[in-house]
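Inverse folding, one chain.
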């Protein structure tokens, strides 16, 4: 099935996936960071205390994701979407009206959980489970919502914050979610009847089916390496520019290339997933990021910011589609929500770990180049690990197939 045929036959559900991916931006770090000066002024916070608040909120989101994310496998998609959207709007309102930094922390927790966590979870889970052999292309189309948010929202809200205070801007976010996102999502689902929610024959309860799958020890490091590394590199982008002797504008300008690269790779990877499977592509998806780290380590000129972020964008676009599609290939469409929610929770934990690790290394005098070479080596190692299940069948006595081959029925 070509992209044209897919869009012609399923534009409603694809648009729903793109919309929910875009709406997840309101809980992403790049958006919340626009309001950090306002938070610090209003609540008397410094960078250290604000960092602790943000980390605690992010970890709280990670702990909640498995339980709430798994419900998408059994709940009505319309009701699930309504609940997540209402809670995200409520979190934005809590931030807007917060009289104390404790309530601010609760609001940020809600933004991280229902925005970055569950809105993106809805988008990728529905695309992965509803489109079967065309899931790669569907994930590619829906994944365009992420770079769309990255391209539009920072500029739009930077302008808005010149005319209104930050609390008013968060009320505008809540109003937009209630008045635009929620009605549009319900309208797009009105003539759509998702089939996976009704498939219960192979649906599994709990998480034991993942815990006893030895392949995950090889796959998970490769899945987690991109969010782990990119969070640290992007958080310390100004430090990187300072260490390299660049003007900060070079990194800021290069992020346009990142958004374009991410959008392009999101569409490019779709047909490859449908043809080769996500499991076979998993070992290769992070290699552009590793190459980008090497390039940044060996080149001092500011022009390298553009190819560096282009390569990062390739991995970012590949990651979303490959990571979502592989759960359907491993455990079936009816279990995507449960499996992906666990992986997303681990990814959030990893995003909290890398900034702390890099900060500690900077304080210990570890050079930036050493960190970049080490990061590239880690990418090579985890990519090699992800290839191992391609050559061996694990748990044959339990009926588990070779990775990338059709699943067999689970034995009672």
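Residues assigned per position:
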């Amino acid at each position: 099935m070509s992209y044209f045929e897919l869009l012609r036959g399923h534009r409603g559900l694809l648009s729903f996936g793109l919309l929910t991916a875009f709406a997840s931006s309101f809980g992403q770090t790049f958006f919340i960071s626009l309001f950090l000066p306002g938070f610090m002024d209003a609540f008397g916070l410094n960078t250290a205390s604000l960092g602790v608040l943000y980390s605690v909120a992010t970890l709280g989101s990670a702990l909640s994701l498995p339980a709430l994310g798994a419900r998408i496998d059994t709940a009505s998609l319309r009701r699930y979407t309504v609940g997540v959207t209402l809670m995200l709007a409520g979190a934005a309102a809590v931030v807007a009206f917060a009289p104390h930094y404790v309530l601010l922390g609760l609001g940020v927790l809600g933004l991280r959980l229902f925005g970055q966590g569950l809105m993106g979870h809805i988008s990728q889970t529905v695309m992965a489970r509803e489109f079967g052999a065309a899931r790669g292309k569907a994930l590619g189309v829906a994944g365009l919502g992420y770079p769309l948010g990255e391209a539009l929202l920072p500029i739009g809200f930077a302008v808005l914050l010149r005319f209104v205070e930050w609390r008013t801007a968060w009320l505008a976010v809540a109003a937009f979610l209630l008045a635009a996102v929620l009605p549009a999502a319900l309208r797009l689902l009105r003539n759509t009847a998702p089939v996976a929610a009704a498939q219960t024959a192979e649906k599994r309860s709990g998480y034991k089916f993942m815990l006893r799958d030895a392949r995950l020890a090889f796959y998970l490091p490769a899945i987690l390496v991109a969010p782990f590394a990119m969070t640290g590199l992007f958080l310390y982008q100004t430090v990187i520019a300072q260490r390299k002797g660049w003007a900060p504008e070079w990194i800021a300008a290069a992020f346009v290339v990142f958004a374009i690269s991410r959008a392009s790779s999101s569409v490019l990877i779709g047909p490859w997933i449908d043809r080769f499977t996500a499991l076979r592509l998993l070992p290769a998806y992070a290699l552009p990021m590793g190459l980008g780290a090497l390039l940044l380590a060996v080149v001092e000129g500011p022009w390298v910011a553009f190819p560096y972020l282009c390569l990062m964008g390739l991995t970012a676009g590949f990651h979303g589609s490959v990571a979502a599609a592989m759960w359907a290939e491993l455990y079936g469409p009816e279990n995507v929500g449960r499996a992906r929610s666990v992986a997303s929770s681990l990814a959030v934990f990893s995003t909290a770990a890398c900034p702390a690790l890099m900060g500690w290394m900077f304080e210990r005098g570890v050079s930036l180049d050493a960190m970049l070479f080490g990061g590239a080596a880690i990418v090579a190692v985890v990519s090699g690990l992800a290839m191992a299940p391609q050559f061996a069948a694990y748990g044959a006595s339990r009926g588990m197939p070779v990775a990338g081959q059709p699943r067999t029925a689970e034995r009672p």
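The CA atoms of residues 293 and 374 lie 9 Å apart. The radius of gyration is 21 Å.
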